[in-house]
Write a structure and sequence with these properties.
alpha+beta, two-stranded antiparallel ribbon, elongated
């Protein structure tokens, strides 16, 4: 489901004189997944641009070696 499809699937209700948007749980989860995918793409694009600006040198771009940080994630 695309972001546009999710937004088009919103139902509107009047609640205490206020209009609210309602999504079913599956659609909400699809929206969250879509937004996370967009965010991941932005992060990857930024990292690639930083790497290019550093002339392809990962250390100069601020990238860490996996072996140096792996134990911190356990």
């Amino acid at each position: 489901m695309t972001g546009l499809e999710v937004l088009q699937s919103v139902n509107f209700l009047n609640l205490k004189g206020k209009q609210v948007a309602v999504l079913d749980v599956e659609t909400w989860q699809a929206l969250i997944e879509w937004l996370e995918t967009l965010e991941d793409g932005q992060i990857a694009k930024k990292a690639l641009n930083e790497l290019k600006a550093a002339g392809g040198n990962r250390q100069r771009a601020g990238w860490l070696k996996w072996d140096d940080v792996e134990s911190e994630l356990e």
